[in-house]
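Q: My labmate handed me this sequence with no annotations at all. I'd like to see what the chain might look like in three dimensions before we decide whether it's worth expressing. Could you predict it?
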Amino acid sequence: MEWLYLHMPISGVDIFWPGLVILGLGVGILGGFYGMGGAWMITPGLNILGFPMAFAIGTDIAHIAGKSIVSTMRHARFGNVDYKLGVAMILGTIAGFEVGAQMIMWFERIGKVDLYVRIIYLLILAFIAYLVYLDFKKLKSKKEVGSAKVDKLETGITWYKTLHKIKIPPVMHFKEAMITCSVWLPLGVGFFTGWIAGILGIGGGLIRMPALIYFVGCPTHVAVGTDLFEVMISGLYGAFTYTWKGRTELIGALVMLLGASLGAQFGAVATKYFKGMQIRILFASAVACAAISILLKLIARIYHIVVLDHASSVVILGGVFVIMMVILIKTIAGMRQEVRMKKQQLT
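A: Here is what I predict for the chain of 347 residues:
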């Protein structure tokens, strides 16, 4: 079965290439749906398939750049991309990314990159899952106490309302996002998410999408599209800087793109058939699966428990599969309903 394995010339490891295609397809669907590169699943996934962590990060970033271009174009057709807001975040993202990438090089020099990256991943994923859960709980509470007319774009967590009151010049209006705020707010969010992106090897969408919703105040669908636009830019820069540092396996990235290019288009279309809160809940579910998987992997490495190492793969792949099925079933149902309505209108 040697033909099922590809040799990675830079890192020197042999990788099961059908696993790369499946990983790319699944994360393509989820990335297009959630508005991110999906690296928060791909980096651990590549590491599980056999890539050293530093190479998993660099290869993942290269894959992000190509896939995000496809997803951004799809979302732009639906009016879900605020280019002005995305551009406002780019400078902060690039500066933060370079700081994070330099930290990874330092972690590698002291021989702690695998341990530190997994711990940071776990903490970030756990926090985001809790954040979305808190959002759902607060929004549900508003409805139960008699707020009969809760705006469909509203969130339970409204930190952005406080941040919008800080009017440090220049103040800008962002049309698609329907917000007016100091330009320093998206720049600051961009720097922080770029820093996390550089450390974790992600396009930043893992935290940028919820940050756009809870800190900047974007409607969920616009946050998804704008996030993908920003992921595309930061991904292109990240691919360059990690390739320059010799930590990118372009062959692996190209294999993943075979599945990701198809999955990304479907994921972007699927957002039409989900409400904002539904997208956020499914996002939190995927994040929780990734967090559990990384925790199992960490325990397995520390205590040398082989069964937990295998269980980590089952959790993340199983979780991705279940969420994809939910997206697929609801999207197909929504498409069928659209067809029926069009037929009724014609008759």
